[in-house]
Design brief:
Length: about 350
């Protein structure tokens, strides 16, 4: 497989040969992605404190405590609060945590099986993306954007960068909780929020695990290779221009982009990333999702680690990759984040917990 956007070719034309080279290259890639895709993350200093609004001591069959919380954020421009639902397993010790950027604000929601997640030993925190910044509202004077200072630049942040920034501010709070294992925290999302999880994890190295489900175009699927029925950038930039920086609009065709999505995934090395796709989700392009995992692997190899495991060819239906720091699964069904996806992500995380 030849990738036309070479991951290990630095801007000065030299080939990455060492970890020192990779650190330079990684910084180059993040800058290229900021300028030409997602926009720079907000630069405002935002202090965040978690406030417990309600405590329910018996939930998930009595196996967890539920905290309905508010993340109160303050900057020089004002204050803004983001609600969340925080399930923590009962019992002694610290628990690995999954922060889910979710589509809905419901406590018990179809996008995550709270009780099953808790019974697998994980804490789960669900935050609705609309409570951060309304998805279909490109006016950054509202939501979290109301306390941020958007730069007057074609490289200013879009929705994806605001959602990612909020996840990092939430991480500021929860990593210090006595019930949470700060060395084993995941950021997870589906579809547009899977794109967000990847961008957040690429920038914030405190997240040991990144779960990107069905992220597709401008997420976990290659741009340079499209399969029948897949989403083109011409569609995503027309329908959702506010997800990205204004400069993204200047690209008409995939081959014009100065990067591809395996670059984004590679910036997560040497940590863990796991992605998933569905047979009927042609819009997300499962085969190109698989190719992204393969294309990102050289970044892990620089650390002496295995990136994507086996097999190297596209997976058979209802199977998953074996081993490696990059996980991938391919199931039957539609574009959705459901129980089969969660089971795979939890197994992947449990196999790679930092002891």
């Amino acid at each position: 497989m030849i990738f036309t956007k070479e991951l290990m070719k630095m801007q000065n034309g030299q080939t990455v040969k060492s970890l020192a080279d990779w650190e330079i290259r990684r910084a180059e890639i993040l800058d290229i992605l900021a300028k030409n895709a997602y926009g720079y993350l907000p630069s405002d200093e935002v202090k965040t404190e978690m406030e417990i609004k309600e405590t329910i001591k018996k939930c998930c069959s009595g196996h967890a405590v539920l905290y309905n919380v508010s993340f109160n954020m303050t900057s020089a421009n004002g204050s803004y609060s983001i609600p969340g639902h925080f399930f923590i397993p009962k019992g002694e010790g610290k628990h690995p945590l999954i922060i889910l950027l979710n589509f809905r604000p419901d406590t018990y929601d179809m996008y995550y099986p709270a009780e099953e997640i808790v019974d697998n030993g994980f804490a789960i925190l669900s935050v609705c993306h609309d409570d951060i910044q309304i998805d279909e509202q490109p006016d950054f004077r509202q939501g979290l954007g109301s306390i941020l200072t958007p730069p007057d630049s074609p490289y200013r942040y879009g929705q994806i960068s605001i959602w990612a920034f909020a996840a990092s501010r939430i991480m500021d709070c929860v990593r210090n909780m006595e019930e949470i294992d700060a060395e084993n925290v995941a950021i997870a999302g589906h579809s547009r929020l899977g794109k967000t999880a990847l961008w957040c994890g690429a920038n914030d190295t405190r997240f040991r695990f990144i779960f990107s489900n069905g992220a597709g175009c401008m997420g976990d699927a290659l741009n340079q290779i499209k399969h029948k029925g897949s989403e083109p950038i011409s569609s995503i930039k027309r329908v959702f221009p506010y997800w990205f920086c204004p400069n993204f609009q200047s690209f008409e065709k995939e081959e014009e982009l100065p990067y591809d999505q395996h670059w984004l995934m590679a910036c997560i090395a040497p940590r863990f990333v796991c992605t998933g796709s569905a047979q009927e989700d042609w819009w997300a392009d499962p085969e190109s999702q698989h190719l992204t995992c393969l294309g990102a692997s050289p970044a892990w190899q620089l650390y002496g680690l295995e990136g994507y495991g086996e097999p190297k060819e596209m997976l058979e239906l209802n199977t998953w990759s074996v081993g490696g720091h990059i996980g991938f699964h391919y199931r039957d069904g539609i574009h959705f984040l459901g129980r089969p996806d969660w089971l795979h992500y939890m197994d992947f995380m449990k196999s790679n917990l930092k002891k």
